[in-house]
Amino acid sequence: MLTTTIISGLVLGGTYALIAMGLTLQYGIARIMNLSYGEMIIAAAFLAYVLFGQWGVNPVLGLLVAVPLGFAFGYLVYGLMLRPLVARAASRESLEIDSILVTFGLLFVIQGAMLVAFGSNYTSYNYLNVGIDVFGAVIAANRLVALGLAVVAGGALYLLFTYTLWGTALRAVAVSPRSAPLVGIDVNRAARFAFAIGCGLAAAGGVVISTYQTFTATAGVVFTMKALVVVIMGGVGNILGALSAGLILGLVETFVATYLDPGLTLAATYLIFLAVLLWRPAGLFGRSSR
Amino acid sequence: MNIISRRSALRLIALATTVLSAGALTPVSAQERTSVKIGYALSLTGPNAGGTGITTLPNYQLWVKEVNDAGGLEMPDGKRLPIEVVEYDDRSSAEELVRALQRLATQDEVDFILPPWSTGYNLAAAPMFDRYGYPHLAATSVTDKAPEFVKRWKKSFWLLGGGHDYTSALAKVLVDASDKGVINKKVAMISIADGFGIDLVTAARPSFQEAGIEVVYDKTYPVGTTDFTPMINEAKASGADTFIAFSYPPETFALTQQVQVADFNPKVLYFGVGTAFPIYAKNNGDAITGIMGIGGIDATSEKVADYRQRHEAATGKAPDYWASVITYASLEILQEAIKRKGLDREAVSEEIATGTFQTVLGETKLEDNQLRDLWWAGQWQNGQFVSIAPADRPGASQPIIPRPERK
Question: B12, B50, B94, B222: which is deepest, by most CB within 10 A?
């Protein structure tokens, strides 16, 4: 019973971590609070649905299409819509407000396009919906893929950020965007990359989630909210923070559902969220504010 | 204090005369009317867009298209007037819905208003329909309080029964099966902590108690739950032969997949909203054979089969197996009542309440402003969601219990 709970909790947490990692990059490094993040996830889910339904492309291969597309989309959006905001922003706060407004608008544009293209129906399809025995717990294979992807993407990004010059530059921008140019870092380029990688991750999340979760064109905000909780809990801009916060949330929800009451899962989520914020206001892995 | 210039004063007077003369002309133009204005406010975007897009909007589109293709709505004098649609999106907000209804009644001055989708939104809309004197044909509202509502709002009509109807019918199906010795009298049930789930589970507890069914697991889960593994494991361990989930579509779909993954094969599986959606069959194939849920259609009725075909041809998607056909029948009732009484809303409401109508459901007559001839439970058999309760109503199919094991 205990192992089953731990394993299904980790698998659920993998989904949360997966959807939160892109947002943490966008908010932490590019300093864009991307409210249309959930819509990007849904758009990728629809892409996977079309690829799978029309051409029979397996969603894991679909990632090869969706992630570069997401990256390119993010790169364009940042260049066209967000760069001007960054250029004119007087302070970090004003950029945050502006970016919230702009991405709020973008949310409706993406959502509207999806409504026109796909209508408002519930969409889902069956892929890898088979049970796999993991230490005695039966887990859906598609959810395992999500957990695997979260761990691999999280681990890879962590290594990149820690051990490469390019990653160090991105972290420098996250820590101090004003001082980074002094050591020759192109802040604009770094932010644009971080935003685009975030969109790529959103696309990856969308493709994988579409294999086991029902979605509609208007369901994006649910993902944005969940991702936001994980991001704040893990520490803004911290990949490992997002990964561990996601896993913790998944474990807490599953434990509460199993040993207390399924009705208390939401309450437990926000309780642990509050507890973390009281204990570490900057999030689990966040540095205290500058 | 503002000084009113002569120019703006003139403009005001000109505007006022235009408006007033237009007002004075209205009775004349009413006699020469060339169309019937039908308005509706639906959740075209937002969280309710999914359900609206399956059950409500396509039926409105189908009906308007069919009526207009036939030359329009027939009036008592035999003349036909085409329908002119005024459509608003309430963006899945009840406040927005109420505003839009107000606008339809006072500014657009539509002749009739079609109701929104879902129980909650119809309850929110009912006072507005009442205030402006429009008949309210609530075709997608499940409520046990309908007898009270029709006293409060005289022109309201409740066409989808109440939670207690559905759960008592389910209890009867289970008792019949356990009397035959095919299942035990234990039930494990979960429900969503939101409108529909709360209503149904509150109705189910007494229904099961009266029927002598023991509820061995009874938990609620919050909106947005995606992983049901803990609940499925508990239900599996509970020894119940019946697993019930009063769920919304996203969870219905998730549960359907997750019981397969967990290899959970109770003899009776019953899910909530979404079970009757055509996409449910499309996505899950044979795995859903034997799954029960709310609603169902008369598999023997040619009229229903014909309706389903027309629906798919006109809107490109299949209707659901529960409220779609009721929604369409409500429009047929409205159409026929207009044919008999014209555009007088008072007379039309009276006719809807007392008249007998030929609809896709057959001969239809409301009792105390409610439709009571309904299918309370259905089951997926041979790729159709057929009705199994009430078992003594003509057109009912035999329930298959225990449900066939998945291959």
Answer: B50
